[in-house]
Amino acid sequence: MELVEETPFRFRIEPHGAMRVPGVVFASRRLLPPKDDGSLTQVANVAALPGIVRASYAMPDMHWGYGFPIGGVAATDVRAGGVVSPGGVGFDISCGVRLLAADLDRSEFGHVAEKVLNGLSRATPRGAGRGAVWQLSRDGLEHLLAEGSRYAVERGWGVQRDLERCEDGGAVDDAEPGRVSARALDRGLGQVGSLGSGNHFLEVQAVDEIYDEGLAGAFGLRPGQVCVMIHCGSRGLGHQICTDHVRRMDESMADRGLSVPDRQLACAPVDSAEGRAYLGAMAAAANYARANRHVLGVAAGEVVREVTGRGLDLVYDISHNLAKIESHEVEGHRRTLCVHRKGATRALPPGHPELPPDLREAGQPVLIPGSMGTASHVLAGVAGGDAFHSTCHGAGRTQSRHQAVRTIDARRLRRELEHSGIVVRGSSARGLAEEAPTAYKDVDAVVAVAEGAGLCRRVARLVPLGVVKG
Ligand SMILES: Nc1nc2c(ncn2[C@@H]2O[C@H](COP(=O)(O)O)[C@@H](O)[C@H]2O)c(=O)[nH]1
Ligand SMILES: [Mn+2]
Ligand SMILES: [Mn+2]
């Protein structure tokens, strides 16, 4: 795949073959994926989607994914036959990050660290399919799919202010629980308030460095502050919805005369029976994921209060696996677009009407986990942000899980983490090796490139104090 360096941190793949638009990769030379991981070919494949506009984008944390690369962003024109592709959202629909801040300094945390981490470990169900913080009836689950975190607050979980600090006020309005299969409902029923496994985590962190004092203040962050970051998504429910709709779209493509370079890019016009069915179910999964992070955050807040006497305030909650119908200007015209972000985070600029009043001047907080042994970051959206106001979502993998397990000694890793003062709870030896910091890119370099490319700005850097791994 030939890449042309257009400007620092921006590479272009010229349209060729079935590509309808160019590919644009935001990266430094060092962060570019190896040619043999297939993700640059995926950028080119996505550029062939019917109705795609401007470019097929990839963020600096990009790596290979199902159909779309992780770190991929693509928008299609809804009124010009543009398609939606479940592979452009991923199996963990609305996987995302929630950051909460404590009125506690890291100097006060050391002597209670073990106690807090033990409490968080007990309060956080994790692993494949086991346990949930909130046991719901089938009727309750349907309410939650329609109303997301708003339903949780209504039922006594957390406070109204939490909703203002959530993307979409805690729920998307276009969810259609009736589009969710019985199998997906069954899988989701006993998992509301659970982490899942692998890359999902609940981490206690400290603010280590502030890059922009004004923005950090607006987000409620100060140097040395203890925070809790939660990364998880829509569990078995989202996975089943993706599986159901990839199959359905795959079956309908020939009849609709649609073809794509890779079967994993199965898609349907947004404005079609299959497209609408997927988007309605996907939105229900998005509401599930937000409520999932919400109740985990409330449970974590109770533990922190019990041990330290201080509570947790929500900084922000944002997804990084979602398709959204948004209005953007393309070639001088306002268009209604279906924006896929898969392992990419929306980053609204200052002044955007969708931001709550207290964040409107600052821009949207963007939450970037790094790894359990390195830093994580808080960024902010900027005016003129490219890729439909999107940026990276993490460090991004350099090694597959399989490669990591083959090369990393889990016992040694656990010792090294504990030696650096990071309390580790949960996770099997295999799980720990899969998620080793060395299996990921350098998150500091990723966010510096994202900022250098004009996608966002850096606000604060956080370091881990303890982690509960899925
Ligand atoms: N702070 C931590 N970050 C972590 C950990 N495990 C993974 N990660 C980062 O999350 C992103 C997002 O993952 P994805 O599954 O949504 O693609 C990933 O790229 C890593 O940078 C952790 O334990 N702590
Ligand atoms: Mn996930
Ligand atoms: Mn994720």
Automatic annotation (TrEMBL):
According to its UniProt record, what is one Pfam family this protein matches?
Answer: RtcB
How, per the record, is the cofactor bound?
A: Binds 2 manganese ions per subunit.
For binding GMP, which residues are annotated in this chain's numbering?
Answer: 199-203, 320-321, 369-372, 376, 393-396, 469
Q: Which GO terms describe its molecular function?
A: GTP binding; metal ion binding; RNA ligase (ATP) activity; RNA ligase (GTP) activity
Xref: PROSITE patterns:
UPF0027
Its recorded reaction(s) are: a 3'-end 2',3'-cyclophospho-ribonucleotide-RNA + a 5'-end dephospho-ribonucleoside-RNA + GTP + H2O = a ribonucleotidyl-ribonucleotide-RNA + GMP + diphosphate + H(+); a 3'-end 3'-phospho-ribonucleotide-RNA + a 5'-end dephospho-ribonucleoside-RNA + GTP = a ribonucleotidyl-ribonucleotide-RNA + GMP + diphosphate
Task: Please give the InterPro entries that the UniProt record associates with this protein.
Answer: RtcB, RtcB-like_sf
Enzyme Commission (EC) number: 6.5.1.-
Where does the chain bind Mn(2+) 1?
Answer: 92, 200
Q: Which residues form the active site?
A: 393 (gmp-histidine intermediate)
Q: Keyword Oxidoreductase: yes or no?
A: no
Cofactor(s) listed:
Mn(2+)
**Residues that bind Mn(2+) 2, according to the entry?**
231, 320
Q: Does the keyword Repressor apply?
A: no
Its Gene Ontology biological processes? Answer: RNA processing; RNA repair
Q: What are the alphabetically sorted keywords of the record?
A: GTP-binding, Ligase, Manganese, Metal-binding, Nucleotide-binding, RNA repair
**Family label:** Belongs to the RtcB family.
Q: How does it assemble?
A: Monomer.
Q: What is this protein called?
A: tRNA-splicing ligase RtcB
Gene this protein is translated from: rtcB
